[in-house]
Every structure is written in C-alpha cells, then in structure tokens.
Amino acid sequence: MTDLITTPFGFESTALEVITGLDLHGKRAIVTGSASGIGVETARALAQAGAEVTLAVRNVQAGEQVAADIRHSTGNKNVQVAKVDLADWETIDAFVKSWEGPLHILINNAGVMALPDLQLSPQGHEMQFATNHLGHFRLSLGLHTALKAAGNARVVSVSSRANLRAAVDFDDIDFSKRPYDPMVAYGQSKTANVLFAVEATRRWKADGIAINAVHPGAIADTNLSRHYPPEVLQKLRTSGAYRYKTIEQGAATSTLVATYPALEDVSGHYFEDCNEAEVVDPAQFPEDGPSAGVAIYAVDPENAKRLWTISEAMLAE
Question: Are the C-beta atoms of residues 139 and 74 closer than 8 Å to each other?
C-alpha cells in the first residue's frame, strides 16, 4: 500500500485558511450548489484568492444575494450567478452552451439528501442518484472542452462518508425491485461521486484535468443535513465517531483539493479532513460500519468503468 497523501491542514482548518497566500487571479471557477451551505464558503474562498467565480445554482434569487455578499466581503467583483438545476437537463445544457473560454476549477458540490419517499427524475431515475451523480456527470462532460483548454484544470467531486453505507446496485439503481431506503439511496449516489473521479482520471488525466473526490465532514447547520431523519441526527450527535464542523471548516477540503499547489498532479483520490483517506472494507466492520475512509468498492476501477458506461446510456435515453 502506498503512503497516503498528507497536507499541513486538518479537521479544524477553514476554507480561507487553506487558501491563504494563493493567487487565483486569471483563474475561472464554477461551484454548484453555492447558494447555501459549504458551497457559499467554498466560493467565497476562491473569490478571496482572486478567482472569477460562477455560482451555479437552482435558486437564482438566493444565488444573487450570496454573490452580493461575497463581492462585498472579498472585494472581488467577478462573482456571477447562473441557473443550473441538476435534475433539469435543459438548464445544464443551456449553461454549458453559454460557457465561453477555459475553466480552471469545477466544484461539483450541489446535492440532495435522504429524500423520505422514492422520487424519480423527469428521465425516470431515482432522484438522489439523478441529481447528485447524473446531473454532475452531464455537466462535467459538457464542460470537458473548457477544462481541457485551461490546462492543469481541477474537478472536485463532493462525496460523503455515506459512501460507506452502500455500493452502486448496478442491477437496480432506481429501486424498481428493492425497497426504497433514503440513506441507502443517498449512499449509492455518494459512491457514484467517487467512482466518477476514478474513471474520469483514467479518461481525462492526459488532457491535463485532475479529478478527486472529497468528504466535507459532518456539518449540522446546512440545508442538506436538515434532511436527515430525526433519529439519524440524534444518533450522529451522540456518536463519538462524529464531530461536527462549522460550515467554514466543511468547505476546507473542497477548497484545498481545488487549489493546493502540491496536489496539482494528484487525481483519482478521496480526501477528508484535508488529507487523503484510507481505503476500507465496510463489510469488515461491526453493524454501524467504519467512521472514516472510503469504501473499497467506491474506488474499484471496474466499478468505475461500469458506472461511466451506464451513466452515458442513461444520458442518451
């Protein structure tokens, strides 16, 4: 086993701390889901370092308010807002079509979590998988030319520790045969986020594009975490394995992977708490599973190739 990649940062580091001293003037970045939560602080950190930042959001009005706040707090006037609803492929395609020039940083941050009942996207796919994975997959494919044009571009695929809960069930992604479980569905989508980074690395590294997956950490005060069922939230709050981060700390790992100079040529890895995580086999742990790391099935190259092929087929339906 090779040594894990480490940085000077850790659990308590904030996005602004990890970007201190970096100059991103001339760089262009997109952050999805940046109208709330860690997306806001990720975008703020990039803007603070001088990047031109586009907030790709579902709620444009909320996005405009965030953009105004970021412009005010950083003094960076190059913060724009664009409509991107990851469950609505027309908005994705329109955004891609409107993009001109290179793209240096793409942070696939948006997501939905633990939808209580089975919901299907307009294309008929389970909504968490459709939004968290397929929407970002379509967006990333559409922006590939812009990423390639940038040279040394970076893509961050925001996953979750929930990847440890479920592999991708390739025979029943949309829960048409098995009972729907909100957290299993969420876990499957977060595993897909890691697998995307693995296969995109194989396909795109020669194009000068680095892709890594990250776990932001457990953050209590975001719109996403409020979707946890009450009993799950209570368990997380009382479990010694979970320490909550602030939103600023939660944005640190995405920001670091997107900008840290020493990670320029690193691709296909999974980071948490600003350092590479250990690969673990959830089957080898007690009922509650491991409290950290990335599941062995989430970094399996064959799983990654299979998911890519299936995802392309889903986009073509």
Answer: no
